[in-house]
């Protein structure tokens, strides 16, 4: 038996039985100390060997002597179109407000995904700062497989709207069907006929819809030594999910949904998870003027290809929205500013994004930044008359 296994077995079993392990006796420890120390040192050296480093423990540091730009505050006031109810108490919400004051975020959209009492509770918590937070609700999928679902879902939506919801999201469908914290409507996708009256009602109420379809392409790829996003992909893998609709199929569902409901504004969050194929996303945006895309939580996936991504930002600047989806820490915001505003190269933010790729700044022009940070969001939020005085 290996020493580590022996220690684990005897240490747990023996102590549990009331037996004092020999190595806990001072004399034994003093006699075996040097040998034990040498053995531990050998094991530590083996663990530090390049042949033993695990991908999950890989933490490269750039050795390049190149500019490092700190961006403590965004160049222009921001509307964050993709966040969640991370702050749970009045004190935490107040801290969030102080943070966004410092970094230059004027307003934040909270995608609660909630309905009924759950939405009311979230709305109440954030109501102390009506000019800083806007609350969006979710759909109630209860009884999705029963007659009358559409009518019940619309009634629940209207109640949320009356309670203060100004949009809907974040809706989720990663291939099995629409899901929420309360109900998994497996088999019912956004383009399902049962959802048609609900999305139509969103348009009539002036409620934009934030929708998450699929996941980054690396989650669908083989979990082997060819997957360059393996570090993050393995945790969120979808390649082993039976009966799931594939990545491209989910993008088709998104496009059919947006096309059917041309009077409803849709926001495909996370670049519609087409961060690996921005050309296709651009083509979809061109076909559907009622569709926007937010950039939330896909900085790491796009910053490795800065020239191509920057060109995409410039071409589709009128259709992209700033978002975070990563909490409310000040350093988090500042990393996004560094990527969007500077031309810094080859830096890492592994603990924030969970990828081992090096990142690069886009150095976007002021005109483009203003549209992504604020102008496009103002257009959407003004369409239902909820933009606070701070953003007017």
Characterization of this structure:
There is one protein chain. By secondary structure, the protein is of the alpha/beta class. The chain folds into two domains: about 5-55, no CATH class; about 80-390, TIM Barrel (Alpha-Beta Barrel). Helix content is about 40%, strand content about 10%. The strands form three sheets. A five-stranded parallel β-sheet has the order 4-7-8-9-10. A three-stranded parallel β-sheet has the order 1-2-3. Strands 5-6 form a two-stranded antiparallel sheet. It is globular, with a radius of gyration of 25 Å. The N and C termini lie far apart (about 70 Å).
Write a concise keyword list for the protein shown above:
single chain; alpha/beta; TIM Barrel; 10 strands
In terms of structural class, how would the helical and strand content be classed?
Answer: alpha/beta
General shape = globular
**pLDDT < 50 runs, ≥5 residues:** 1-32, 385-392
Question: What is the domain tally?
Answer: 2
Whole-number mean pLDDT? 89
Strand percent estimate:
5-15%
Largest sheet: 5 strands, parallel
Number of strands: 10
């Amino acid at each position: 038996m290996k020493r580590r296994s022996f220690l684990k077995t005897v240490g747990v079993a023996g102590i549990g039985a009331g037996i004092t392990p020999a190595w806990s006796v001072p004399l034994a420890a003093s006699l075996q100390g040097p040998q034990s120390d040498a053995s531990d040192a050998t094991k530590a050296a083996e663990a530090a060997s390049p042949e033993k480093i695990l991908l999950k423990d890989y933490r490269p540091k750039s050795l390049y002597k190149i500019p490092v730009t700190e961006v403590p505050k965004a160049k222009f006031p921001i509307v964050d179109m993709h966040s969640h109810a991370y702050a749970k108490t009045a004190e935490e919400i107040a801290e969030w407000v102080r943070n966004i004051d410092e970094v230059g975020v004027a307003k934040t959209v909270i995608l609660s995904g909630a309905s009924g009492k759950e939405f009311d509770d979230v709305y109440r918590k954030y109501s102390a700062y009506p000019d800083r937070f806007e609350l969006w609700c979710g759909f109630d999928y209860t009884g999705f497989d029963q007659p009358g679902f559409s009518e019940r879902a619309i009634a629940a939506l209207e109640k949320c709207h009356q309670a203060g919801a100004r949009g809907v999201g974040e809706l989720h469908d990663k291939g099995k069907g629409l899901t929420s914290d309360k109900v998994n409507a497996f088999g019912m996708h956004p383009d399902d006929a049962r959802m048609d009256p609900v999305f139509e009602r969103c348009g009539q109420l002036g409620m934009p819809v934030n929708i998450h379809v699929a996941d980054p392409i690396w989650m669908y790829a083989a979990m082997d030594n060819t997957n360059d996003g393996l570090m993050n992909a393995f945790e969120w893998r979808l390649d082993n999910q039976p009966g799931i609709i594939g990545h491209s199929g989910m993008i088709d569902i998104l496009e059919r949904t947006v096309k059917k409901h041309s009077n409803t504004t849709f926001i495909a969050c996370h670049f519609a998870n087409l961060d690996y194929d921005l050309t296709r996303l651009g083509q979809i945006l061109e076909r559907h003027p009622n569709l926007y895309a937010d950039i939330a939580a896909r900085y790491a996936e796009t910053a490795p290809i800065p020239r191509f991504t920057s060109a995409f930002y410039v071409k589709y600047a009128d259709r992209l929205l700033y978002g975070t989806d990563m909490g409310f820490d000040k350093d988090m915001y500042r990393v996004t500013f560094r990527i969007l505003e500077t031309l810094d190269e080859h830096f890492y933010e592994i603990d924030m994004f969970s990828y081992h790729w090096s990142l690069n700044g886009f150095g976007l022009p002021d005109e483009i930044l203003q549209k992504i940070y604020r102008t496009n969001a103002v257009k959407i939020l003004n369409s239902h008359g909820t933009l606070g005085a701070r953003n007017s």
